[in-house]
Amino acid sequence: MAWALPEALASRGARVKAARCPPETRPTMARSIKEDLGVLRYRDFRILLADRLLAPLAYAFSAVGVSFAVLDVTGSAADLSYVLAAQMIPSVVFMLFGGIAADRFRPQLVIVVGNVLIAVGEGTFGLLTLAHAINTPGMIGLELVTGTGMSLFWPASTALLPKIVPNGELQSANALSRLVMNGATMGGMAIAGLTVAAVGPGWALTICGVGMLGTVPLLASLEAKANERPDHEPDIWRELREGWQEFVKHAWVWGTVVEYLIANACWYGGLLVLGPVVAKQHLGGPAAWGWLNAAFSVGLILGGFLALRWMPKRPMLWVTLLAVPLGVACWAVGGLWPFWLILLTWLVTGIATEFLVVLWNVSLARFIRPDRLARVSAYDGLGSSLAMPLGALAAGPLAAHLGVAGAEYAAGAVTVGAALLTLLLKDVWTMRLSEAPDWGDEQRSTQSPVLTAP
Questions:
Q1: What is the C-alpha to C-alpha distance for residues 81 and 14, in angstroms, rounded to an integer?
Q2: Tens digit of pLDDT for each residue in 17-53?
Q3: Phi and psi (nearest 5°) for 329?
Q4: How far, in Å, CA of 297 to CA of 379, rounded?
Q5: How many Cα atoms are found within 13 Å in the side-chain-facing hemisphere of 119?
Q6: For residue 231, which phi and psi values (nearest 5 degrees)?
Q7: Among candidates 8, 368, 383, which has minimal Cα distance to 159?
Q8: pLDDT tens digits for 352-389?
Q9: End-to-end CA distance of the chain
C-alpha cells in the first residue's frame, strides 16, 4: 500500500480548501460513465493499459507456479517459506533506490529494467524446473532476482500515472488501470492453476518469463519524461533523507503504512505460504488454489468498479478498516470452512483490497509533491513490505509449533488488532481529500508528455 520537507507544505496556508480549488481538483462523488472513460483519449494511457493487461496476466503464472514448484520438488512448507521470503527481501534492500531512480529518470524505463529481471528470474526457474535441475538454493537465488525486479517496479509505477493523465482524472485512471490489471490477474490465476494441474509448474513459470519480456516494447513507447532536475544533482543520501522527512510528516501516511506492514506480514505468511499447503492437503491441490486466487481477483474487479464510481470524503478511515477482511480470510483457510464460504471471504477480501489501493494511490497523488511522489511511494512500499519476508520465514516454524490452523488464526487476530490500533490516530479520522493542496501545473513535471487524443 501506502518524502525533503516540501516548502510548499511548510505552512498550513499552502493547503487549499475545496472552495478555492479549481473544479477539476475537487473530489468527485459521482461521475457519468462517459466521464469515467474520457481518460482513454490519452495515447500514453491506452498504451499503459495494454502493459497492465499483459504484465499481470504473465505474473499470475508465477504466483501459482512458484509455490507448487517448491512443493513438488521439496514437499516442505519451510522451504516454501524460504523461497517466498527471498522474493520479498530485495524490496527491503532496493525499494528506496528504486524510488530515487524513478524520480531521476523516466519511470517507464525503470519498470522495463524491473520487468526484464522478473523475466530472467521466473523464466530461468521454469526452464530449470522442466529440466529437473533445480534445488532449494537455486530457487532462492532466482527469486532474489525476481524480487529485485519487483522492488524497482513499485515506486516507478506509482510515479508514472500522474505524468500521463491530469490531476482531475487520477481517480478514473487509477480505477480503470487497476480494473484491467485485476481482470488479467483473474484470468491468469484460473488459467495458471489449470496449467499447473495439467502440465506442471515449470511451464507456468516459463510462460511468465516470456510474457514479462513482451511488456518491454509497450513501456519503451511511452512518452512520459523524467522530472526536471536541478543543475546540481543532490546526493542519494540527501534525497533519502528528504523522502523520510516527508513520510513522517503525515500521520495518516506512516500510521497506515505501519498497519499494513503488520497486515501484509500476516497475509503473506498466513495465505501465500500456508494457503498452498492447505490447498494441497485439504482443498484439491493447485486447481483449488487457482480458483481461490481467481475469486480474489473477481473481488478486485468489483472493488475497482466501486472505486470508479465513488470516493469517500475520509479515505484513510476506510483504508484502515479495509484490512479486517484479510484477517477473516486467514480464519476461513485455517478453519477449513466450506469451500464456497472460503471463496466468498476471498471475494470480499479482493473487493476491500482494490478499493483501499485506489483510495491510497489517489490520496498520495493529491497530497504529495509530484517531483517526490516516487520516493514517497518507495517508503510506502518499503514499510508495507518490510515484514513480508519475516512473515514468510515465520509461517513454517509457526505452523510446525501451532499447527496450520493455529498459525492462520493467529495471523487473522493480529491483522484485525492492527486495524483497531490504527484507528487511534486522529489524522486517520480527519484527513479529507477536499483539503488537498492544489499543486498546479508548475509543481507537476514541466516535461510531461503531450497528451494526444485518438
A1: 47
A2: 333 333 333 444 445 566 667 778 888 888 988 988 9
A3: -65, -40
A4: 26
A5: 15
A6: -60, -40
A7: 368
A8: 988 888 888 888 877 777 677 777 777 777 776 677 77
A9: 33
